[in-house]
Amino acid sequence: MRLEPERPFARLLKGVVEALLLQSLKGSLRGVYLQGELPSSPLVLAMNHHSFYDGHLVWLLGRLAGKPASLLVAEENLKAFPILSLVGALEASRVREALRRLRRGEWVAVFPEGVMRYPGPLGPVLPGACWLAERAQVPLLPVAARVVLRGFEHPEAFLWVGEPLPLDARLEEGLGLLLHRLDQLLGSTHPRQVPEGFREVLKGRRSLEERVRPWVEALKRL
C-alpha cells in the first residue's frame, strides 16, 4: 500500500507522524547537536547507521534545511509501516522515483553500509549512494552520526555534516574519516560538555539532577 501525500487525509496524517517523530526525539534524547552547514541544493545524503534514531535524525536534518528528504529503506520495513512514506521513506528498489525527487530539487538519504551496525568504524560501503549522485549529477553529502549515552541520564545525538563530495570522490574514505574525527572528538571531550564546534539544534529531555537544580539553588538562597 502506498499513501499519496497530496490527499487531504494523507496530509493530516503526515502532520501527525511528523509531530510524533519530533516528540520521540525530544522525549528520548537529551538533545541533538550539529556541526557543519546544511546545503539548500538537491543532494544525496549518506550517513552511517548504528541506532534506532538514525531515520528520525535524517528527517530532522531535512526539516532544519527546509528540504523534503526521502530515506531509502528496505521494502519489508515500509510494508510493515507504510505510513512512513508520508514523511519521506521510499523503498530502496524505487530508484527511478529517487532520481525524480532529486531532479525536483529534493534530498535523497541513504545508509550506505546497508545494515545497522554496532557503533564503531564505518563498515563496507555499498555503491548505491554514489550511483544516485552521479546519475542525478548532484553532490554527495557525508554525515557522521553518533547517538551516545555520556554524562547525563538520556542519550545525545551528534551529527557532523561534512563538505559535499565531488562525484569522483570515494565515499567510504570521506565518511569514514568524518566518523573517525567525530569519535575522537567525543572521546576527548568531558562527558558533560558539548564538543567544540557543535551547536544544539533540538533540546530534549533533561536529567533528573538538571530538573531539580533550580530548586536546590533556590533553597541555598533562603
Question: What does it look like?
Answer:
The chain is an alpha/beta fold and 222 residues long. It has one domain (32-217). It is built from seven helices and eight strands; from the N terminus they run H-E-E-H-E-H-E-H-E-H-E-E-H-E-H. The protein has helices at residues 8-28, 54-65, 75-80, 95-103, 128-136, 171-187, 208-220; strands at residues 31-35, 43-47, 69-73, 89-91, 107-110, 140-148, 156-161, 199-203. Strands 4-3-5-2-6-7-1-8 form an eight-stranded mixed sheet, with helices on both faces. Helix 1 (8-28) packs across helix 2 (54-65). The chain starts with 7 loop residues before the first helix and ends with a helix. The model has no long low-confidence stretch (mean pLDDT 91).
Q: What's the helical proportion of residues?
A: 25-40%
Give the strand order of the largest sheet, numbering strands 1, 2, ... along the chain.
4-3-5-2-6-7-1-8
SSE succession: HEEHEHEHEHEEHEH
Uncertain spans, ≥5 residues at pLDDT below 50?
none
Strand content: 15-25%
Question: What are the SSEs and their pairings?
Answer:
Layout: H1 8-28, E1 31-35, E2 43-47, H2 54-65, E3 69-73, H3 75-80, E4 89-91, H4 95-103, E5 107-110, H5 128-136, E6 140-148, E7 156-161, H6 171-187, E8 199-203, H7 208-220
Parallel strand pairs: 1-7, 2-5, 2-6, 3-4, 3-5
Antiparallel strand pairs: 1-8, 6-7
Helix pairs in contact: 1-2
